[in-house]
Specification:
By secondary structure, this protein is of the alpha+beta class. The protein has 15 helices and 5 strands. A hairpin with a 5-residue loop joins strand 1 (about 130) and strand 2. The longest helix is centred in the middle third of the chain and has 18 residues, at about 180-195.
């Protein structure tokens, strides 16, 4: 069963329904009348009016019976739904995919990490660094990187995934200071991928597992957030080195589609930097994914 089948309708229709419920009349500049509103957020007729389309046309969009909205309609809907840039682009992607009807064939992403990238991870110590797949599998990490999410190193290499850790590892809620926002960003990244490749095996396997095992994941999944932060700060309550707040930066790796380099950092001379150095010093080299795992280490 694909994600689209699981969710009972096209991704475009599901996205519109979910986002409409998250915009209040006040945010849209609508004066709500007296009395209780049965529908959370905007009503269909309110959103249709804001976007300048007929209620019947918009209803067909939400029910998946209309799959070829024009670019002008998409832009009008994005404005009415108060979407940010990433969300607008996601809506355009969904509309383009709905118009094609037949899904594009998914290409299996490479899990091989280039030797030069592994050298870079080592040279960046004591900064914790990972290489992650598009679904947040940890493909490679230096010692501090693997130890930063305390307890993930106890899992087999192929099970190490940031979203799986955040929702299913018993230590995650204690280690991650701002658990709510961190897991929301994880789900948003997966949601964005689902809009482009809902049938991708790596995605459907992970999302299917989390939907079954984590009610929290299912709740966040239904929100249809697609904004994932590529940089910022995170605070960790680490059982070995104490509290540390680190900046982070995520960037795509050229030549290996779907892989990202994620690095954490702190200013020298600060307690956070000292804790980061201690984390690297106390980490053991054998915590990194084993070189014998051909699915991860051997170049394709």
């Amino acid at each position: 069963m694909t994600l689209e089948q699981h969710e009972g309708g096209g991704e475009l229709a599901r996205f519109l329904r979910a986002r409409r419920t998250q915009v209040t009349p006040e945010e849209a500049g609508i004066i709500a009348g007296p009395g209780w509103r049965r529908t959370p957020g905007l009503r269909r007729e309110e959103l249709a009016s804001l976007a300048g389309v007929s209620v019947d046309y918009y209803t067909r969009l939400e029910r998946g019976k209309e799959s070829r909205p024009s670019p002008a309609v998409i832009d009008a809907l994005a404005q009415a739904l108060r979407l940010h840039d990433e969300e607008r682009e996601h809506l355009r992607t969904l509309a383009g995919r709905a118009a094609r009807r037949a899904p594009d064939p998914s290409t299996a992403p490479s899990r091989s990490v280039r030797p030069a990238t592994r050298q870079l991870l080592e040279h960046l110590r004591p900064y914790p660094v990972w290489v992650v797949s598009r679904t947040m599998d940890v493909l490679a990490a230096n010692p501090g990187g693997l130890r930063l999410y305390a307890g993930i190193e106890d899992w087999p290499a192929k099970q190490r995934n940031i979203a799986r850790y955040a929702f299913l590892h018993p230590a995650a809620r204690e280690v991650l200071d701002d658990w709510h926002n961190q897991v929301r960003a994880c789900v948003a990244r997966l949601r964005a991928l689902a809009g482009a490749e809902p049938d991708a095996p790596d995605l459907t396997q992970l999302v299917g597992e989390l939907l079954v095992k984590s009610p929290d994941f299912a709740r966040f999944w239904e929100r249809y957030d697609v904004r994932a932060n590529a940089y910022g700060k995170k605070t960790f309550h680490h059982p070995d080195v104490g509290d540390l707040t680190l900046g982070y930066q995520s960037m795509q790796l050229d030549g290996t589609p779907g892989q990202r380099l994620v690095t954490y950092y702190a200013t020298q001379g600060t307690p956070d930097y000292d804790a980061m150095v201690l984390l690297d010093m106390t980490a053991h080299e054998n915590l990194a994914p084993p070189a014998a795992d051909s699915s991860i280490d051997r170049p394709s």
